[in-house]
Amino acid sequence: MNKKAILAVSFGTTYPETREKTIGATEKKISEEFPDYDVFRAFTSTIVRKRIYKNEGIKVDSIREALDKLKAQGYEEVYLQSLHIIPGIEYQLVQNAIDNYSPQFEKLVATPPLLDKFADYEQLVNFLEKQSAYLPSGKAILWMGHGTAHSAFTTYACLDHMLAGTKSYVGAVESYPDVHDEIKRLKHAKVEKVYMQPLMMVAGNHAHNDMASDQPNSWKTILKENDIVGHPVLKGLGEYEEIQEMFIAKLRTTIERG
């Protein structure tokens, strides 16, 4: 009987509480849904892995380290479960691992990220719209995406456009549309208060510092300077069962296809 594993791959976070509520919770659900597979963890961020080891004494593997261990332990069938939101720079590392390690396993396959096909966008937009549907006039949710220099930066503008006419708005920290673009839209809609949430797997460094802090360049501060109250909600996407189910559905489809 061949040994089978699922390697859950994410960027990672140095914030232990959100790590377990999001990544840990998703990994637990994967274990429950696929009892015939052993589930392992890998983080793509070198900085995050180093800081976790320094601050917590916990060694988290890179994709390469994890695959080397799985090979040494005799695993023959391995699925890389991407816990990335977009097919950007970090997801490229998953694809590179498939290219480099495929000859060493009988089967080595990766799932796509959360947003891969048009149906994924529709599903996420429906989810985001539902989160803000209950809000009264003058209030909205402003979702903070990570942003990227990769061509996948268009994801955020696409989501923002698809959400037009709702009470959910999407901006990005490191690309387009930025918070100033969203402020123009918020003012046009006469929004006076927004609940800021990370459009990321975790509520980590960006959520705490770039979104929720009182630092001069934080979204909270910039919104305040533009007469909009920004209330931070430090809850990563990975905490929501609907998002966990989206990832698991991709894994189930990938396994069924072989």
UniProtKB/TrEMBL annotation:
UniProt EC number: 4.99.1.-
Name of the encoding gene: cbiK
Source taxon at top rank: Bacteria
Pfam families with a match to the protein in the record: CbiK
Active-site feature positions: H146
Any one biological process term the GO annotation gives: anaerobic cobalamin biosynthetic process
Keywords of this entry: Cobalt, Lyase, Metal-binding
Name used for this protein in its record: Cobalt chelatase (CbiK)
Family matches, as CDD domains: CbiK_C, CbiK_N
Keyword Lyase included in the entry's annotation: yes
A molecular function GO annotation: sirohydrochlorin cobaltochelatase activity
Residues bound to Co(2+): H146, E174, H206
